[in-house]
Amino acid sequence: MSILQSKIILLVLVAVGVSATSCRKKEGCTDAKALNYDRKAKADNGTCEYEVTNPTSYSLEIPYTIGKYLPSPYNPEDNPLTEEGIALGRKLFYEKKLSGDNTLSCAGCHKQENAFADPDAFSTGIDGLLGSRSAMPIFNAAWNYSRKFFWDGRALDIEGQALGPVVNPVEMHEIWPNAVAKLQADNEYPALFKGVFGTETIDSMKVVKAIAQFERTLISGNAKFDKYLRGESQLTPSELNGYNIFMDEAGGDCFHCHGSATNPLWTDNKFHNNGLDASPADLGLGAVTGDANDNGKFKTPSLRNLIYTAPYMHDSRFATLDEVINFYSLELKYSPTIDPLMKHVAAGGVQLNPQDRIDLKAFLLTLSDEEFVTNPKFSNPN
Ligand code: HEC
Ligand code: HEC
User: Fold this and answer.
1) 213 and 258 share one domain
2) Which of 23, 54, 83, 261 is 20 to 30 A from 285 (CA-CA)?
3) Structural domain contains residue 98
4) Which residues contact 177 (CB under 8 A, 6 or more apart)?
């Protein structure tokens, strides 16, 4: 072997060695010494700058019955929906790192199979403490034009709402700087935030914006009653009679607060005292506004998906729909702020006969949307 030949062999060996080392670079941001490797990084300078891809704008798919009768959904200008934002929000909704001991995510209390409510009467936080109100289902929030959230309306917008549970001592019991630091140190989140907001620097506002984007996609509009309105399904005589009772001022008289075929949200999203107690222990809206005229008023819940959202009322006092219907029929209690629409309080309620109660319940169950609670787009992506 000539000297030249051995030099060439040596060079080849060195080259192979170098490329083998570069293959062993760690995943992560690139840096000046090129110790880490990331395909999407812009430069080898340690800045963790990634190629910015503009997020893809997203339009909500609006179900026929909702689109026909309601104005466009509300979306704040500073948080436009994007595919990347929705995907990030979904991941965060299921992210346990947002809680103090990394064990509880939003979805821990808001379960898809329960239309994003909690089947427990009161949810348990990370310290084993119980809250005092029923966890609300989450759907069709983009059509809540008052933009007031929680049973007592204390949060403005779902962005504002999402700030609360992370720090609530009976819920996720974390502080935002810790929650953000955990996401910042994660090997996926910085790049995902960059893809949505153009910067890797995470903060609580961006977290809640992404979560709100995901929540706006939680749309329920394909129950049996929607199919009936689209001419694709028939109602049984019992279900039809139940609907008539619901709509009849001399019957159940439910529609003033709970919607109708032309308000397919099945809630007015307003606050009422529906006569649960002679002396309300939880003041509801009154505790938020400080106005005694608001005492005992709570947000009207939607009647969609009731089959998945038991127990019922802000304090989960009723385990079944039969109990709820009995209450409206016979057990109303007078208090000074009771809604004037609860016209029959003096007689205890709307006095439905047993058959009418059965039919009313049958109608209420036609508002169950199985597609919503099984839609794979809303499940845990992690
Ligand atoms: C420990 C259980 C628990 C966890 C965890 C939790 N929630 Fe809730 N959520 C509740 C309860 C209880 C309520 C009702 C509280 C009230 O009205 O005072 C509620 C209410 C809501 C509402 C209001 C719905 C409406 O129609 O007004 C939204 C939206 C919501 N939660 C989203 C979230 C998000 C987002 C997270 C995660 C950041 C989260 N929740 C974490 C229990 C929980
Ligand atoms: C004056 C307005 C009003 C009228 C009329 C009314 N409701 Fe309600 N409904 C409410 C409010 C407000 C709540 C929540 C009360 C609370 O938790 O403190 C509620 C709660 C409910 C719930 C519990 C839902 C859940 O997710 O917890 C059901 C079911 C219900 N109503 C059905 C009916 C039916 C059926 C009728 C007619 C017989 C009716 N409502 C009439 C305002 C009204």
Assistant:
1) no
2) 261
3) yes
4) none
Residue range of the domain that includes 38: 1-51
H or E element that contains 309: helix 306-309
> Amino acid letter at 217?
T
In ligand 2, the atom with minimum distance to the C-alpha of 117 is: 26
How confident is the prediction along the chain (382 residues), in pLDDT tens digits per residue?
566 566 655 555 444 444 444 445 555 566 656 566 666 666 666 666 656 568 999 999 999 999 999 999 999 999 999 999 999 999 999 999 999 999 999 999 999 999 999 999 999 998 989 999 999 999 999 999 999 999 999 999 999 999 999 999 999 999 999 999 999 999 999 999 999 999 999 999 999 999 999 999 999 999 999 999 999 999 999 999 999 999 999 999 999 999 999 999 999 999 999 999 999 999 999 999 999 999 999 999 999 999 999 999 999 999 999 999 999 999 999 999 999 999 999 999 999 999 999 999 999 999 999 999 999 999 999 8
Residue type, 348: G
Residue ID of nearest Cα to ligand 2 atom 3? 257
Same domain assignment for residues 25 and 133: no
Q: Assess if residue 265 is contained within a domain.
A: yes
Whole-model pTM: value is 0.89
The count of domains in the chain is 3
Ligand with minimal distance to 309 CA: 2
| DSSP character at residue 375 | -
Q: Does one domain contain both 179 and 75?
A: yes
248 SS3 class: coil
Centroid of ligand 2 to alpha carbon of 220 (angstroms): 19
Pair 245, 354 in one domain: yes
Is 174 noted as a catalytic residue in this protein?
A: no
- Reported as half-sphere exposure (CB side, CA atoms, 13 A), residue 351 has a value of 7
Q: Is 358 exposed, middle or buried (0-12, 13-18, 19+ CB in 10 A)?
A: middle
Query: Does any domain span residue 373?
Result: no
In a domain, 3, yes or no: yes
- Nearest protein Cα to ligand 2, atom 33: 254
Residues 91 and 119 in one domain: yes
Cα separation, 330 vs 348, whole angstroms: 5
Residue 236 CA to residue 246 CA, distance in Å, equals 15
Checking DSSP bridges between strand 271-272 and strand 298-299, what pairing results, if any?
antiparallel
Do 229 and 339 fall within a single domain?
A: yes
